[in-house]
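2.7 Reproducibility. Because tokenized structures are sensitive to small changes in the input, we list the exact sequence used for Histidine--tRNA ligase, including any N-terminal residues retained from the expression construct. No trimming or masking was applied before prediction.
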Amino acid sequence: MAKPKKQPRPKAETPKGFRDYFGADVTERAAMLNAIAGVYHRYGFDALESSAVETVEALGKFLPDVDRPNEGVFAWQDEDEKWLALRYDLTAPLARVYAQHRNDLPTPYRRYAMGPVWRNEKPGPGRFRQFYQCDADTVGTASMAADAEICAMLADALEEVGIPRGDYVVRVNNRKVLEGVLDRIGLAKTKIQANPKDLDATVSDAYDVAIRNAVMRTIDKFDKVGESGVRELLTTGREDASGAFIDGVGLSDAQADPVLVFLTSKGESTAETLANLRAAVGTSERGIEGVKELEEITTLLEAQGYGPDRIVIDPSVVRGLGYYTGPVFEAELTFEILDEKGRPRQFGSVAGGGRYDDLVARFTGQQVPAVGVSIGVDRLLAALREKGRIGGEAQGPVVVTVMDRDRMADYQAMVGELRQAGIRAEVYLGNPKNFGNQMKYADRRSSPVAIIEGGDEKARGVVQIKDLILGAQIAESATLEEWKERPSQYEVPRDQLVEKVRDILTGQS
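Resulting structure tokens (single pass, no recycling of outputs):
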């Protein structure tokens, strides 16, 4: 009889596109999110924690198909053969929550949400399939005061976490203004969207929508390829840095001109920018409405003390998502960093959002105005590390060493007193036989202090307290005389343990 085949051991590896987060990463993120939540709470927003799993029907943007049911999302069928998926952002769940509970929620409903989202997309450098988002939205009001408030709150949140004024700018535009420009060049928005399942959609309808979407995507590349690059992409196409040729949208130069006028409308002052935008939209009613909304947002922000040094009208902000219907905004960090080749470049965008008045209507059949913002948590954490606001080696706990395993209760009593005093501490729980290993453990934990109580110290009613940070500094550079003058180990009465540890920690900070 053949022996059963031995089951191979599983390979210990993180799935592609995912990552593990350890101590400092987790605590730094939590501290940043707590600071942002404090700003949102101050503005009157309530916390919401929705399900990580939604029906694919509710998510809406990605629908199952025959070839790849989980296109764009991680999806599966439940026992009722209903398609479910991990949420890909925090906005689609909000639309579902509001539609489901609108009779029990205040109007407008102001909520913030923080948590992981999942996207079944090809991973790359700095691009993961699971990442954190931090959102705030107001649902149920068309007032531009809500848009202005979101922008002001975003500016305050950046300053709260450690991005100083002058190192960021919140840039604001309006999709209605862009729609007005497209109206001028003969690409008026059609009522019928390009959908192959729409039997009533004509070829020209589908063509117009495809061209409009292509123009939108091209405009969104303005920061990367500049005015000339956008002109080429709008018309005949261009060759990218790798030498590959990218086909153009196919507009004529006469059609591309108003688009470029719009993109370069930013003036020396807000008033000049708004005047340029009025000229760019011409007689388009939709465009004129968009300019008026920008004027109102500017007035409301100035009344609160948010000038163009913090929040500015910038026509180059487009935002790629198609569901935006009005004002859009991005928070950009303006300080320079060095890229992987040592070249200086600006850090770039860390947050974005806008008005989306049609999303809830998918559930209710009625338009519900809404506006929101999403902060890229990992991007903002990276920015704070660049600025030195966080990072460096995290301080570990005070370690109480074990000199006699039969006296574990004594050591637990010590650690209990330290914790009651608000001091992070732990008892060494490994094999206490080798004291050197205990000190190596404390070093690996980045412990600031070690507590030592052997039989002799116990008999005399004292403890030894070792300042590990000072000890490391002395060992690295001090002379013998300096070492004698600056002892790094202290003997104190047992009842002064907490007081002495607190003094040492205060001196280290």
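Confidence is low (pLDDT under 50) at residues 62-69, 190-206.
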